[in-house]
Structure formats: structure tokens, C-alpha cells
Amino acid sequence: xxxxxxxxxxxxxxxxxxxxxxxxxxxxxxxxxxxxxxxxxxxxxxxx
Length: 48
Prior knowledge:
This protein is mainly α. The chain contains two helices and no strands.
């Protein structure tokens, strides 16, 4: 979408670059939050 906006002349190449860079930073932070945190302990299965 960002590339299409830039290609269509709706945003400048600098704006497109900045948007993509910001999204990449958010993606990296999200990855670290998901993968670097330890998993919570599994809850025991209820006995039947």
C-alpha cells in the first residue's frame, strides 16, 4: 500500500521510506516481545 501511494504520487519517496522504516521497527519490537518472553507455565489438566 505504501509503495502504491508513492508510485501514484500521493506521498514522497522520503515519506514512503520513513513509513516502511517505522513499520519495520514495530515489527522487530513485536517479534522480540513474542519470542523473547518465556512461556507461562502450563496449567494442569483437570482430572475426570
